[in-house]
Amino acid sequence: MHMARLPSYGEAISGGHWLDLVAPYVAVCDYARACRVSCVFYNQFAPRLWNDPLQTFRLLGLLPHQVRAATRQLVTSLDFRGFVSGCSALIDYQGFSKTLQLFRIRFPAIRCIVLDGLVDYNPAELLRPRNVADFCPDGSVPLPLVLSLGHCSLPLPNNFFLEGYWRQLVYLDVSDIPGSLHGLTSNASIHIVLPNLRILKVRGREMKDESLMSVLHSFGDCLWSVDLSRNSLTDAAVRLLASRFLSRPTVQTDAYFATEGKISVIKDAEGKVVRSNSFGDFIYISESSWSSAFSHPERHLADSPAYDPNAQWRLGGHECLRVDNVEDAKTSMAGGVGKPIPDWNDVQATENGRGPGVLTHLHLGGNANFTVKGVSQLFRQANGHLRHFDCEAPSIFTSVKTQTRLSGALGCSHLFRPVMASNLQSLRIHHSLVTQAPTVRDPSMSAMECVLFAETVLRERAEIAFPIAFIPDLNPRLQSLTLTCLPRISTGPLIDRLIRFLQLAAEQEKAIQSTVDTNSRRSPTMLRGLRHIRLEFGATPSDNETNGLEDLDTGALLRLSKDDFSFFGEGGWDLERNHVRADADDRRAKRIAERSGSPISIKIESDDASQTKQPVRLAHYPLPATVDVDGTHEHVRATVQWEDKAVGVYVWVGTGILGVDHAVNAYMSNLANHSLQTDIGPATPDQTAAGVPSGVCVFNAAWDAILFTEVKKDPLGRAPSQELRDVVQAIRQFRIGTRAAYAARRRIRGSSDEGGNLAKVPLVQDHWSGNLEILLGG
User: Fold this and answer.
1) How large is the average pLDDT for residues 29-54?
2) Which residue of 153, 181, 440, 461 lies most exposed, with the fewest beta carbons within 10 A?
3) Which helix (H) or strand (E) holds 330?
4) Which Gene3D superfamilies match (predicted)?
5) d(CA 88, CA 383)
6) Considering only CA atoms, which of 773, 775, 744, 771 is closest in space to residue 759?
7) What is the mean pLDDT of the chain?
8) Strands (DSSP E) along 137-261, which ranges?
9) Which DSSP string do the residues of 1-26 spell out, in sequence order?
């Protein structure tokens, strides 16, 4: 742990007491008896027993009626979560609101106050006066470091944080509290009142973009973690958040071009970087021969140590995750049940107390108007500083007027690569990042029909438009991944992709371990790889939703006829209407080949009939304003707005001749609609993989429209259906099978000296030994 001062010579050479080694292994239920052995035992175990008394009492089932003053001085945490009965008896006072008045007097060493979930109290009671001289501004006297007031039923007074009692706060949670944030934003010198604040959580406060501007302006660069979940933020908030990043030097680098690729820019005829108000700098990823396949032999090596302490370097990639939750804050600043109390002088030097001077942890989940475009713009402007990002279900903007609402993270995989998100260690995002199936909400369809429609029609369209799904080796520096909004029911493709992802995680783990086993002790440090996967599922379908599913022809979703399926209100992709008709068999073709360390294949096979046809040129080609660029006539000249100036840029539109790349065909077809010739930006790796040349600009509105569909309200036909499977059960069965084979392998390895034949059990290739967590919703 970091120390506020260097140890003295005596402290450095003196050995610790043997109880320091034994105490962590003593059961909590034995602490009370250990305290009675001697003063030495008491000094060791009493702080562990009393630093978080409410949680200890709940754990042991105790209900003390009297506590000595000397014992109360050992209390550093009061965590009321799950503990209501007995709290008044603990301090011998009637009424919880009156109890709050005594915190400062009865518990002078209190560091953490956690009142989450308690509603029947008035937070103003915490402001009862006390001698102001007791609140030393230099931090020499212990004061609260953690304050969590989530779900309080009464608003906080506007002068709540102006008192010196809260001056040392490092962690503040004021989520789901009625009233405005006037107390935090009205005072321009709030960063002086709370100079040590590093973690701020303001979930569910109906915060809008204007309020966010006030919060960020008030605290400056003090915060390294901000939780803005379940508010009313839009993509306009990105410009405000980017101001927290752009003021710091970038940690993105092209030193690892061979492994990761590098960031390049599009320039105009004068050699200036092209920019627009909606996109920012026109940057794209230049690939090496290895980076596009995520298969470089050195992709699992951590970065070399930085020898210039004043330079801005990215993380090495092997560091432990920095956590910003209340549990970690309590443990690091006040200990916990069965843990020693950190020295007060060293608390500010802990990971939570020290600030990196830049925002690294950002939570944006639950903001309904925050879209995939906002996520993309945020990561392009973050300069690689983000370490944890949470946006569970960003909306997908549709250029088509439709009642269907989509959410997901399609086309975002490149944003989380090390070349873009250099310090990213933890990610919580929509499951479509891996499965390529968005979430659909349509009032004309049942919940089950929305799930099946997303998994069939939309998933296959997404595989055409955005063929690169996220895999572990796309960013081996990522240690934790949470996939949200997963459905409980699947016809198979979603299950296959989740299982394949676990298999790829196992392959990554084996590759790292194999390198470690073959290296010497002086070999480079290895990355940890993906060690934690959390799958968050939606509510279990009700009986009413699942009734009759055995008669529903789920395959009909893949065979929608021209009358059942419409694109922009028209009847499918029709060449006669300048649209491309894609056969169902072609749409079902796999875009990503099963691989084991090999490059991802994005080629779409065409049938023999299509190869023998004469080239077909779309009727609306050549487009107006087509210009000759590099000897071709595949570009048009357009303008983008940067500040108050119009900037000219060349946009790739193709030849207009239909080819084997269905995504490019659909893109060229969509350009017949002039309203889709908007949202100009550089081609992403997904678009390049689908057939667009690298380093050009495209009309993203026309490209994204490949996904947007409308389903007429005609009922689906009924026929023998594909089997509907429980996703959770399928994953559990897969894990049970791989774990059993893995355990058998280990047993034979252990008994090999007794004649065991290692070849009897096949090598297990798909068991991942990391932490897989499943959370069921609803």
Assistant:
1) 82
2) 153
3) helix 326-334
4) Ribonuclease Inhibitor
5) 50
6) 744
7) 80
8) 146-148, 171-173, 199-201, 225-227
9) ---SSPPPHHHHHSPPPHHHHHGGGS
